[in-house]
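Exercise 3.2. Students should predict the tertiary structure of the chain below and write it as structure tokens, then compare their answer with the key that follows.

Predict this chain's 3D structure.
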Amino acid sequence: MRGMSEAELSYLGVAADEELVYRSALRAPGLGAEALALAAGMGVDELRAVLARLEASGMVTVAEDEGIAAADPFVVTERLVESRLTELQAEIQRVIAARHVVGVLLDDQRDGRRQSPPDGVERVEGPDRVRARIDELAFFARHELLSVQPNGPLTAAAIEGAKEADERALRRGLEMRTILRSDALHDPRTAEYLAELSVRGARIRTMDGPLERMLIFDRTTALVPIDPRETSRGALVVHQPGLISSLIALFERFWCAGEDLDQEHLTEIERQVLKTMVRVEKDEAGARELGISVRTYRGHVASLLRRLSATHRAQGVLAARDRGWL
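Answer key:
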């Protein structure tokens, strides 16, 4: 038999002395207060105080002759479990409701950042800290993200680092406008990434000539490099309205001078996938022929169908022929 010292019901909100008396009453039903106090190893006055709590919770009944009966364990346990679950659900709701605190704290943090630099410019050094700052600003942006990428083709690391954040921003409905150098499209990987962003709603333009690197969030905060010739040094986070206004004006001049991304542009891999779709029915065979994974192959097929406004592959092939892609 298990010892009475074990607090089996504590996780259901029953105090140790309450459990002791209840289990004593289960083992010796009908005892009076004095006998039950002796069985439980406590004083009579202490027992009466515990009995009052147990009776209020429906765990015991006390007859007129002071005979004490414990309630059915099944009924008691179900009632305790239901009560505890109700308490836990209420606590979970309070915890969930408290998540707004992070917004308040971040507002305090942003206010501190705005107030601490006397000129409205914050210096962030090191690639990791800059990336973290960009992620934070992009996460809390609500309306618009403007960017200028002046270095031509994007590296695989740059695409991988930005892809998730860009797609998340577009899903949230942010207006995204990006300007790149025209030669960025000469790189198949960069061209494919830009085409995917464009399909998802981003507006992309390219232009020849010098560009200045910048990111502008909701027209209230901007990032520019500390040293444009050595971007790894870090970035300046600009909050000062006058500087923001000048950067937006510069962005709009670049935008007006640029050309929209050619929606008819196909990367080399997209051309190969499209040709393979005509000859091969099974994705596995098409992927094997091109030397890529089935998942990658299907991703290209889905992207092509979206761009062609086609609901199935046969319709997509016909639309591609109409556009002169085949």
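Discussion points: Residues 1-5 have pLDDT under 50 and may be disordered. The chain has three domains: 10-72, 120-260, 268-322.
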